[in-house]
Amino acid sequence: MEEALRNYVRLHRKELRSLRDAVRKYDRICIFRHIKPDFDALGCQFGLYHFLRENFPGKEIHQAGDTHPTFVPRLFPAPEKIPNSWFDSPFLAIVLDVGDKERIADPRFQKASMVVKIDHHPFRGPDVSERSLLDEGSASCGELVTAFLASFGRRKKVSKEAARALYIAIVGDSGRFLYGATSPLTFASASWLIGKGIDIRSIYLSMYEKKIEDLEFQKYVLDHYRITPKGVAYYLLPEEGLKELGLTSERGKEHVNMFSNIEGINAWCSITEDNDPKEPCWRISIRSKAEDISGVASKWGGGGHPQASGAKFKDLSELEAFLSDLDDLF
Fold first, then answer.
1. Contact, 271 vs 264, CB < 8 A?
2. What is the arithmetic mean of pLDDT over 259-274?
3. pLDDT digits (tens, 9 = 90+) for 226-260
4. Cβ contacts of residue 288 below 8 Å, gap of 6+?
5. Which of 12, 69, 94, 198 has the highest local Cβ count within 10 Å?
6. Does the structure show a pLDDT above 90 at 75?
7. Which residues contact 15 (CB under 8 A, 6 or more apart)?
8. Please, what's the b/e burial string for 208-241 (b: 16 or more CB within 10 A of its CB; e: otherwise)?
9. How do residues 37-70 score in pLDDT, each as one tens digit?
10. Which stretches of the chain are assigned E, i.e. beta strand?
């Protein structure tokens, strides 16, 4: 095992042992993650799902949550359709990559006999878990789940399928190892997973290969972006733009990082209209080069990490105030 990963497992041996004991105790387990999943959420979920199914064949293992318009089935299988009756008997809920109770994709986790959690988001109570491994400093939840798998030792096998999913999680949330939270643990976890025999070339092709239609999306962004006086770049993607491009609202943030290496741009956002009947709003993905944007994200109904967060507002009348809050950081 790579040194940084070994040291992390040793440092957190108490929390990891507690999580292993919970897995061993329950014969019925369901793995949950956040709504509108990204690479990290799905990669963690399916990496752990494959590991548990392969190493605990006597247990009943499931995964729950909403789907993704492009990652499923290109990268991951479709979420299971689990009948409500399954949750009426005792089970363990493992919640991954979500700090906010309201953002857990399937509310049936609340029926669990025990809830445990692995996460790297800033904690936003109330806590739903009895046992947890929480580390806000980690670049991805994927590296924490990798540490959990490594803590089982050589007695348990990590298949290529499990390793592939977790590698996708780590690469996705670390921005291909470019974000500031990338650490020796990030690289050690990725190296350990590569050692399981995965083909990283095919993984990168699957994650980032685009279609010709995506060029039209990029063209739209380049035609419509704006930059504030303090170097905050953004593009608006209203419903009519989504229809014109043939996109769902979940895909609106896909080109937010087009501005990441441009001199004079300090932060950048995608602002996408989402006419969800339950909560119509404009959803915002925010990134920055250096400044901590998570406070602004929290003020605007979201949260996340210092250089990668999400937020929202109800209508465009709030756009100027939101941009002003970001400008105030620079």
1. no
2. 96
3. 999 999 999 999 999 999 999 999 999 999 999 99
4. 266, 267, 268, 306, 307, 329
5. 94
6. yes
7. 131, 132, 133
8. eeeeeeeeebeebbeeebeebeebbbbbbbbeeb
9. 999 999 999 999 999 999 999 999 999 999 998 8
10. 28-32, 60-63, 92-96, 114-119, 131-134, 226-227, 232-237, 267-274, 281-288, 303-304, 308-313
The amino acid present at 312, given as its one-letter code, is K
178 vs 4: CA distance, rounded Å: 18
Q: Do 98 and 41 form a contact (C-beta atoms < 8 A)?
A: yes
Domain stops at, among 181, 207, 233 = 207
Please state at what angle helix 39-55 crosses helix 160-173, rounded to 10 degrees.
Answer: 160
Pairing of strands 28-32, 60-63: parallel
* Confidence grade of residue 278 (pLDDT, cut at 50, 70, 90): confident
**Claim to verify: residue 155 and residue 264 sit in the same structural domain:** no
Instruction: Provide the token pair at 215.
Output: 């060029």
**Which domain range does residue 106 map to?**
3-207
| Close Cβ partners of 102 (under 8 Å, ≥ 6 residues apart) | none
Question: Over the chain, what is the mean pLDDT?
Answer: 95
* Beta-carbon contacts of residue 193 (< 8 Å; ≥ 6 apart): 146, 158, 163, 164, 166, 167, 170
| Separation of alpha carbons 175 and 140, rounded Å | 10
Given the DSSP bridges, would you call strands 131-134 and 226-227 parallel, antiparallel or unpaired?
unpaired
- Based on the fold, state whether residues 199 and 242 are members of the same structural domain: no
List the one residue out of 296, 308, 328, 315 whose CA is nearest residue 268: 308
Pairing of strands 28-32, 92-96: parallel
Joined together, the tokens standing for residue 275 give 């006419």
One domain, residues 155 and 217 = no
Q: Are residues 80 and 22 in the same domain?
A: yes
Q: DSSP labels for 151-168?
A: TTGGGS---HHHHHHHHH
At 10-30, the pLDDT tens digits run 999 999 999 999 999 999 999
At 127 the pLDDT is: 82
Percentages helix, strand, coil for the chain (3-state, rounded to 5) are 45, 20, 35
